[in-house]
Amino acid sequence: MFSTMQDGHLSIARILQQGSEPHGVSAEVVTWTGDGARRTSYAAVGRRAAQLAHALRGLGVTGDQRVGTFMWNNSEHLEAYFAVPSMGAVLHTLNIRLFPDQLVYVANHAEDEVVLVDSTLLPLFQKLLPELATVRHVIVVGADGAALEAPAGVEVHGYEELLAEQPDEFDWPELDERSAAAMCYTSGTTANPKGVVYSHRSVYLHSMQVCMTDGMALSQADRSLAVVPMFHAMSWGLPYAAFMVGASLIMPDRFLRPEPLVRMIAAERPTMAAAVPTIWQGVLQHLATNAEDVSSLREVVVGGAACPPSLMKAFEENYGISVLHAWGMTETSPLGSVARAPVGVSGEQRWTYRASQGRLPTGVQGRLVGEGDVVLPWDGASVGELQVRGPWVAKAYYGEDDPEKFHEGWLRTGDVGYITPDGFVQLTDRAKDVIKSGGEWISSVDLENKVMGHPAVAEAMVIGVPDEKWSERPLVAVVLRDGQQVAAAELREFLADSVAKWQLPEYWTFIPEAPKTSVGKFDKKRLRQQHAEGRLNITHVQ
Ligand code: ADP
Fold first, then answer.
1. How far apart are CA 215 and CA 272, in angstroms?
2. pLDDT of res. 188
3. Strand partners for 465
4. Residue 440 burial (10 A CB sphere; 0-12, 13-18, 19+)
5. What is the pLDDT of residue 189?
6. Which of 165, 281, 345, 347 has its CA 20 to 30 A from that of 85?
């Protein structure tokens, strides 16, 4: 028997309506301009999303054509986030920091027909445009487009000119909730980037999870600062979640260095913020020498890479800001697990829970799989690969078979760790980064976190390097804090209390800056390359 309940399709248009009508006046989008801010209400975003949809219809976007964005986090990007999926087309957020050949690959692979480009990114985009085989229209945001040289067959428009005169209401179509809403490519560290296509249903359900108290706890009382780019796993779902509950959004545009970020926090008083650990490391360093008021923040969400416990403690102890560690992937929309300590736990044990990757929510089911596809128990000791499934987890890549990644209905995350009996995931490494030394495994992340616990260290990256006797040994690359000095031997000594003797690294190098990926994570591939090419100055200590 079927239920007697209604089952209207879940849609992004409905999220837009909720944000722009009930919350239309009280919630605002703030876009940072470097020395101030542009402001607009959610009601205005709703009107301009309707205008954009009319304009895109006029350019021939009548079905599920892909509309790319080559943009920073700003209110116009938000308008595209709502207009494109709500009208039945597919939003494709292009990662502006990918290598040019990867960008060309993803835009051609997705068959983008229209691309919205921030005027500040035109020099970068100009180089790609001749290679973009399917693009017919480019819409320039923040300028009239005259600055762009377009190849034959490509029309260039100014965003404001295109929107002017368009009706500010749109009769959003009823869409099948399983239809494609938005797509995002993984950053493709080893092979070509892979496309993940989110549905209206997956976005809607994921947004609810972001807002749940044990998710990111977003509510209408929040001012949320989305530092994580809108081209990195949909800014972790913040834009849609914020519209769902009427939380205001603060967008940094291109001002992502610690100094302007901190100034923006002081001026705009966000209550929550989200970014990868390297951004928060930078903010912390900046705050150490520049007194700014960051007291408005109740919680900052840190994810995308393991969050060093030293970072969490520094924010909490020095600034009273709680750091919420979260794990996820482009393939999981991206919110997976969130590390909130269970009730009744106190002291050092709380930190152990909070520093883990946390509990998976009801919507993301997980299992641990060991060698020979054996499903392992959640006993806090058995180590295997984390596999997940659920309504906002990808079941395939766009236009590509990958039986290795999608296995018996589960997504193989490539992340290795254990799960405690009370459901806390503790990842020890990415499978490809684990260091295999003399038949045993060393966690590169664990060593990094411990080295970053030293007060003179700003950042630490650990990779496995070939070793004749042990097959691989850890190499630690250290970035020192400004004005600090410390010898490799002293750092090794510092680790001796908490690291097993056979795991203590003997290879050390000091680097001016850690190589980072397009989304700001440690780029171990580049460090390995630098090592292979003999470009690192290595100290050997024993
Ligand atoms: P990319 O693979 O290009 O970095 P994603 O942003 O989708 O793209 O990365 C997902 C991966 O990032 C995860 O599989 C995991 O290895 C890592 N990751 C994300 N969050 C965390 C976290 N909190 N702790 C450890 N690793 C994390």
1. 13
2. 66
3. 473
4. exposed
5. 63
6. 165
Question: Active-site residue among 441, 470, 472, 516?
Answer: 441
- Note the CATH number of domain 12-254: 3.40.50.12780
CA-proximal residue: ligand 1, atom 27 (nearest): 305
**43-84, pLDDT tens digit by residue?**
999 999 999 999 999 999 999 999 999 999 999 999 999 999
**Residue 92 CA to ligand 1 centre (angstroms):** 20
Of all atoms in ligand 1, which is nearest to the CA of residue 445? 25
Cβ-proximal residues to 191 (8 Å cutoff; 6+ apart), any chain: none
Examine the residue annotation and report whether 186 is marked as an active-site residue of this protein.
Answer: yes
Burial of 9 (0-12, 13-18, 19+ CB in 10 A): middle
Of ligand 1's listed atoms, the one at least distance from the Cα of 427 is 25
Model pLDDT, residue 144: 84
306 lines ligand 1 (CB under 6 A): yes
- pLDDT tens-digit map of 144-194: 888 899 999 999 999 999 999 999 999 999 999 999 999 999 976 667 899
- Residue 542: pLDDT above 90? no
What is the homologous superfamily of the domain 333-430 according to CATH? Luciferase; Domain 3 (2.30.38.10)
241: pLDDT strictly greater than 80: yes
Whether residue 304 has its Cβ less than 6 Å from ligand 1: yes
Higher pLDDT, 181 or 401: 181
Catalytic pick from 76, 299, 331, 448?
Answer: 331
CA distance linking residue 51 with residue 190, whole number of Å: 40
Alpha-carbon distance of 202 to 160, in angstroms, equals 31
Instruction: Write a three-state SS string for 404-432.
Output: CCEECCEEEEEEEEEECCCCEEEEEEEHH
Known catalytic residue at 509 = no
Kindly report, as residue ranges, where domains of CATH 3.30.300.30 are found in the chain. 435-540
Answer with the residue of higher pLDDT: 145 or 423: 423
* pLDDT (tens digit per residue) in 257-282: 999 999 999 999 999 999 999 999 99
- Indicate the top mutation candidate among 302, 329, 526 to test ligand 1's pocket, ranked by most ligand atoms within 8 A of CB: 329
Helix (H, G, I), strand (E, B) or coil at 60: coil
Q: 347: which residues sit within 8 A by CB, 6+ positions away?
A: none
Say if ligand 1 is within 6 A of residue 427 CB.
yes
Listed in order, the ranges of the chain carrying CATH 2.30.38.10 are 333-430
Ligand 1 atom closest to residue 357's alpha carbon, by position in its atom list:
23
For domain 435-540, say whether CATH 3.90.1200.10 is its number. no
